[in-house]
Structures are given as C-alpha cells and as structure tokens.
C-alpha cells in the first residue's frame, strides 16, 4: 500500500513539475489507482476481509471494487474543489492553483490552443497568484474546467456504478448481513455525493 501510494504521488508531482499537458483519462486513473485507491479503499477493504474472514477469502477481487469506489470518490473530491459548497472545508480552487492534473483540467486542456494550454497548466506553479486570483484569471480557468463536457457523469458515476455491480456479483453468495448492507450503502453514498 505504501509503495503504490508513493508511486502515485510521485506521478502527480512529476506531471506538475514537467508541466505535462499531454495526459488523458488513463493517465489520471492510473495515478488515482496508485495514490488514492490503494490508501483509502483497496487496502482497507483487503484488510477488513483478511481479518473478518480469517484469511480464508481471496483478497485480489477487492482491488477492482476498491478501484471503482476510490476513483469515484477522488473525482468527486476534485469537483468539490472547483465548486465548493456548504461545509466544504478545503481551499476552493486549491487543486487548480497547485496545478494538480485533475480529470477536469485534463479534459479542459485539449479545448485550448497549445500556447494557452501550456499557460493553463503552468498556472499551477504561480501560487503567488492566489492572493490576486481575479487578475490571474482563476475564475475563467475554473469556469473552463467546470464546463468540461460530461466530466461529472462520465467521470464520477461510471466507476461508482461499476463498483455497485462488483458488490452485487462479488458478494452474491454471502447471506444478507449488516456488513453486506454497509457495502451496498457505500455505493449509494458515493453516488449521492456526486449529485
């Protein structure tokens, strides 16, 4: 888990350092699998299964389930950073100001002409602009990222729906229990969080 998470973090930092503008969904999801999913969903699911089943159940099927949940969660977290809302406890537009290659930024870059795409991506390294966000054009950049076609539906809900299918098929042979209901409710919670 530590190895995967470190690799994912290194990928993300490298993209920012090199000002990469040639990334796509696959790049993003690979980074999320490593950086977010192994730490927050895959490892906890496997650990819970290991303890709960006392080592009698296969752990590898939980990698796929954990990936779907973790990816949906991360995409929503990236969207919340652009949109904010009641109770949002993080810095609004912080991901954009830091130049994190979120799915929204990756989708927005191809709609820019090449010089402008480089400027949008490089915007990340000028944290000083935070204080004068209006003059640096944070609003326009945020609007472009938010208008990204289909990111909310295609990006966030697809992994979550696949996770729901995985819960149904992966745990079909088990009797109904409080724990199985909890896993099912995770799907509902992530989907609700996406709307």
Folded structure, characterized:
It contains 10 helices and no strands. With 195 residues, it is mainly alpha-helical. It has one domain (2-193): Farnesyl Diphosphate Synthase (Orthogonal Bundle), CATH 1.10.600.10. Helix 1 runs antiparallel to helix 2, helix 3 (61-83) packs antiparallel against helix 9 and helix 3 packs parallel to helix 10 (178-193).
What is this structure's SSE topology?
Elements: H1 2-17, H2 25-52, H3 61-83, H4 94-98, H5 103-108, H6 114-122, H7 133-136, H8 138-146, H9 151-170, H10 178-193
Helix pairs in contact: 1-2, 2-3, 3-9, 3-10, 9-10
Q: Assign the CATH architecture.
A: Orthogonal Bundle
Using only C-alpha atoms, the radius of gyration works out to: 18 Å
Order of helices and strands: HHHHHHHHHH
CATH topology: Farnesyl Diphosphate Synthase
Give the distance, in angstroms, between the N- and C-terminal Cα atoms: 30 Å
Largest sheet: none
Q: Spans of 5+ residues with little confidence (pLDDT < 50)?
A: 130-138, 148-154
CATH superfamily assignment?
Farnesyl Diphosphate Synthase
Percentage of residues in strands = under 5%
What's the mean pLDDT score? 77
Number of domains: 1
